[in-house]
Amino acid sequence: MISTLFNPSSYSIAVIGLGYVGLPLAVEFGKKYKVTGFDISQARVNELNQGKDHTLEVDPAELKSVVRKSDALAGVFFSADKESLADCNVYIVTVPTPVDQYNNPDLTPLKKATEMVAGVLKKRDIVIYESTVFPGCTEEECIPVLEKFSGLKFNVDFFCGYSPERINPGDNARKLPNIKKVTSGSTPEIGQIVNSLYASIIPAGTHLAQSIKVAEAAKVIENAQRDINIAFVNELSKIFSLLNINTQHVLEAAATKWNFLHFKPGLVGGHCIGVDPYYLAQKATSAGYYPEIILSGRRINDSMGPYIADAVVKLMVKKEIVVWGSDILILGITFKENCPDVRNTKVVDIVKELSLYKANITVYDPWASCTQVEEEYGIKCINALPEDKQYDAVILAVCHNEFCDLEYGALLKKSSVLYDVKGVLNLDLVDARL
Which of 88, 272, 381, 399 is catalytic? Predict the structure, then answer.
């Protein structure tokens, strides 16, 4: 029987990709198993070996406690050397799955990681994918690569599983062990093995899906559903603005009904919600179906950055503030509050739109790496506000804790605009909310 070949005490686990998803996974597995945490960035590996994590997903003390310095039975050995993967028998791939400039799925990182794993794959090894993909991707795109570069036969010599990540960056209440995990395997028995492996580190429990495709589909619709719900309230916000009705007041009133879903309008960025629906849409289109609701929701949410910028410009013009050459402060550049993650942040769209008016834009974010922001988006930002500087317009784009205590009156000129994207400031302070 296959199961007799996979005794938990013999597991040697490799986690491929040590970002927001991979690192917490490697740390949790490292508490019970021998783990190799692999990343192509030597700088990232050096940082982790020093017990530091710039993503802030793992506490430094916890990280240091699992670093494996020798050939111990448990712990994590961080490495950028492919040779360090040779002795592993369970490979978990957690690399990014972005979209390109045309919103088409970009499987390049996934395929490169798969090819690398194939180079060290041995008989009876298991490859588990956590990267978000479209239904069928593991079996249609990844397994052929594993077979081609390993010379081994799928479900005879090696096996696969899929367990979609559910990491929520910056959420201290919902960490990996506290989030129920969906699992799956390429055969019923492998499904049980994969499920047991994750169940050993996830107190919140697991759900064994009927197939890899079911697990892939479950992941991608989780975020598509949320995307569509936010798109609905974003559209409501646009409508109610024209009707001079406070959107938040409407939502609060509607939320008194027992089955109302209380979503809020806002920018939709990040590595999941703003990306995953395109994976499902692309697969649906290739199967001959054009997904209208999914893509309509995407169009609405992708329009919100320019919409906010346009609203601010109109408010400035209404107050007779000259927009050309004005001083505008944008608070926050990360894709969500109290988190350093700037992947796919839609605040960038506000900056780009306002730049068309030749405004002097200051982006302030105490959480973001300004070096990373400039490298990825060509936008300069600062981690501390200059003293005694006042602005023609201030936009609260991200609700970091630090922004709750700001003295907004000191930031504004005598005639200026304060726009609250997040809807958290006192109504008496702001000129408008999203």
Answer: 272
